[in-house]
Amino acid sequence: MLVTRWDRSLAAHLLSLVSNLERYIQGEDAAQLLPECLALRELLQLWLIQNDTVPGETERYGALRHHLGIVSQLAMMEGRQLLPEYFSGGLMQQGPHLVYLWMPPSEEAHNLSEQLSCYGFMVQTMYQASKLAQALQEATPAAVVAYTDFTPGDPIMALADTIRGLCPLLFCSPRYDFEARLQAVRAGAAGFLAWPLLAHELIDNLNFGDLGEKRDPLRVMIVEDMASLAGLYANVLNSHGVDALQVTDPARVLDGIVQFRPDLILMDMYMPECNGMELAQIIRQQRLLDGIPILFLSVEKRQSIQLDTLTLGIDGFLTKPVAPEELVVTVINRARRYRKLRSYMINDSLTGLLNHSHLYAQLEYEVLRAKRDQRALSLVMLDLDHFKTINDSYGHPAGDEVLVNLARFLKERLRRSDLISRYGGEEFAIVLPGTRQEDALRIMNAMRQAFSQIEQRSNQQTFHQTFSVGISSLASAEDTTQLVQQADDMLYQAKRLGRNRVEGYSPEQSPLSRRESEA
Ligand SMILES: Nc1nc2c(ncn2[C@@H]2O[C@H](COP(=O)(O)OP(=O)(O)OP(=O)(O)O)[C@@H](O)[C@H]2O)c(=O)[nH]1
């Protein structure tokens, strides 16, 4: 209230509260809070001593709001136990692609390790407690996958607690009776898989639910003009595995959304440059950004104002100062829900990749951005070879499984910032922002080779599948239509030249110019 209206008695009361708080924290271990308390006390004392000068609105809005905001938020967070059980693993692990396999040497274990490598995982296989303990000290993997038949005294059970404190533990077992499953749950397993274990079953387990979030953390954008407050919120969210981006300048929000792809935006309602309501409307007026949940953070307690903001499409309110538990639970649950719903909306139902129309809209956006920032961008068109014969020989479900395997493979091997879509049938389109054509050629050639080594399975039979690729880049295309056309032409070229190959666009060699010169 003091921020919006100067009131001497209220200021005096606040001063006594701040002095009490200061005395209290001097006896406590709350070092962060002390300098902020001192600054607030000095400010209030100065204003109260100057009897005849009333601090102006700008001063109150700037300095008082700043110190008051930080002191109240810090006091709320100081000494709090931050829900350790909410996200048992804590921060994102070091190696999203590192997996430790705990299993006796066998052909199955060797095969599993090789297949996981084709998908881009770094695998270390071991079966000695001391080796695993040492490996866990050296690097934290995305997960430990442990073979066990649950015989009493299996050393992995003694290590289970240590592993769970660092990363998810998944069991695979030739036993999958109730007793075995119960033991796994009691040992804190994040997953239970049948042995022999197929690489893609394991990858699916690593990609979904909490495990998926450990590999691809929820992303939250914090829009708050006070950098120190934004930092406080970011720290709390970070400590619960959330990737938080702080934006203090509202003008940078739109670009930030496109680059960071947040699952939720946490926004201060009152900012000097542009208030939260205005900014939220700017976001909501863009079709691609319309669905992102926006939570307001504000000292505003008036229900009428809160209701007004809800009608503008704001998803909720957190009142400042916010308790860390409330911040974490509200933000994580909403962000999770949005990520799930969004994946149903924009993804192809078989492969979980972006669908055609969404890819096209995103591609337009990326092309504009790359042109504006003068950055490279490549487009890849990929088509499975002789796919009809796979359907004819092994059946349509086996064909579907190949499509799903390819989707998993692309997601594992490419960067999180790349856009991967199922363009139609057995054709895929991939946008590689910031990538020149020669780099795209190299990357796709390596992927083409790796994919051809993956064992595809249908009942008891195994077979291998290849794909052809056409690539174009912004260096040679004027706009999105031309980019797509050139990549398509190159795909046609790759098929014509024998399949299982990658062709990049060059103006002299395009099928069009060849057709022209042939004419
Ligand atoms: N199993 C399965 N097959 C699909 C799906 N979508 C498209 N297809 C099949 O993909 C095959 C594509 O065949 P073609 O266009 O002749 O191409 P191709 O056999 O891959 O030969 P090339 O592309 O010339 O190497 C058709 O048999 C389609 O039925 C799908 O969702 N699942």
From TrEMBL:
Query: Taking every annotated instance into account, which residue ranges of this chain make up the domain Response regulatory?
Result: 219-335
The UniProt entry, under PROSITE patterns, shows:
GGDEF, RESPONSE_REGULATORY
Q: Which residues carry this modification: 4-aspartylphosphate?
A: 268
Record-listed E.C. numbers: 2.7.7.65
A Gene Ontology cellular-component term: plasma membrane
Single GO term (MF): diguanylate cyclase activity
Q: Which residues form the GGDEF domain?
A: 375-507
Q: Which reaction does it catalyse?
A: 2 GTP = 3',3'-c-di-GMP + 2 diphosphate
Name of the protein described by the UniProt record: diguanylate cyclase
